[in-house]
Amino acid sequence: MVPKIEKISESLQVGESLHWDSETQSLYLVDIFGQSIHKYVPSTNRFTTGHVGKKTSFIIPVQGKTDQFVISIDRQIALIKWDGESTNILILEILYEVDNNTDNTLNDGKCDSVGRLWAGTFNPNISEIGEDKCSLYNFQNKKVTTLLTKVGASNGLAFDDKLKKFYHIDILSGTLNQYDFDVTRGTIFCLPVYKTLANGKPIYTLNPKGGFTKFKQGLDGMAIDIDGNLWVAVFNGSRVIKIDPRKPDSIATSIQLPVKQVTSVAFGGPNLDELYVTTGKMTIFDETPSGPDDGALFKITGLGTKGLPGVGVVL
Fold first, then answer.
1. Which of 21, 40, 76, 161 has the CB geometry, 3.0–4.6 Å to 27, for a possible disulfide?
2. Is 155 marked as a binding-site residue?
3. Does the annotation list 220 as a binding residue?
4. End-to-end alpha carbon distance in the chain
5. How far is it, in rounded angstroms, from Cα 186 to Cα 314?
6. How many structural domains is the chain composed of?
7. Is 4 exposed, middle or buried (0-12, 13-18, 19+ CB in 10 A)?
8. How many CA atoms lie within 13 A of 309 on its CB side?
């Protein structure tokens, strides 16, 4: 079956960090530079917006709570209340703050299967930087654990409990890395043959002869399917690619989209067989995409696979 691509929404500035909530059959996402959170309900085709007022990079429901979410606000993680309809949100509590580098902000966030939150930092001036000044963390029980330092720009995350693997993207280096993963302890580690913890085991590098600042394309958000394959957004690359971690440095599938800045992906729908895709239209390298679909939300069907359900935060 040939995949079908549908445009779902009008343009955001930089759509990101999709999360499918199976309980409400709703899709959540953010607009980083639009400083807003969004909810899309496929059954009613309703798209709503809540205003944060500062850069926000992810929104994830809190397990067991109605209308409560965790979101990032610059370098902080906040607990908020939002009914999913009104434009206003209520900040209930600042839960965490990370990183002394005030140039950085939190980026992609995702929960593992026990509801532990993972997120890393990112420098919004990515086209101008070349140093590894970002980190990756996880958060649980009011405690912040630093997992990786000297990250160029933390991005996509995925967990495979069956294979006990964790996958992480550094968009600056253009590398998708694999780590051994202990979900009970929330730790990642590398065997000696994997070089060092900071590098992990690279299973795919987008630009082997140079990173993002040289080739102006980077690996961005990521989702995992039931077969353990990784579906990765290629920023500035107009496509989503499927990578089988068991076959390093090869692309199993590539799906072209009518936009340039593909930012994030997540499986959703009643059967988790619909791949939702966010895109952006930010100015980078002095270029601003201006096509009619840049920044829109898309849905891809007919992929012949299903994803794993999104997991809410346990507080």
1. 40
2. yes
3. yes
4. 42
5. 13
6. 1
7. exposed
8. 14
Among this protein's residues, is 67 annotated catalytic?
Answer: no
State yes or no: 16 annotated in a binding site: yes
From the list 108, 160, 170, 220, the catalytic residue is 220
What is the C-alpha to C-alpha distance for residues 215 and 298, in angstroms, rounded to an integer?
Answer: 25
Query: ∠ at Cα 170 (255, 275), nearest 5°?
Result: 30
CATH code for the domain in which residue 83 is found:
2.120.10.30
pLDDT digits (tens, 9 = 90+) for 11-60: 999 999 999 999 999 999 999 999 999 999 999 999 999 999 999 999 99
Domain limits at 297? 4-301
128 is in an annotated binding site: no
Q: What Rg, from alpha-carbon coordinates, does the chain have?
A: 18
CB-CB neighbours of 228 under 10 Å: 16
Tokens 């499986």, residue located: 267
Give the span between the Cα atoms of 277 and 279, in whole angstroms: 7
Q: Is residue 54 part of a domain?
A: yes
* Domain contains 188: yes
Q: Kindly state whether residue 308 falls inside one of the protein's structural domains.
A: no
Any domain includes 309: no
What are φ and ψ of residue 75, in 5° steps?
-100, 10
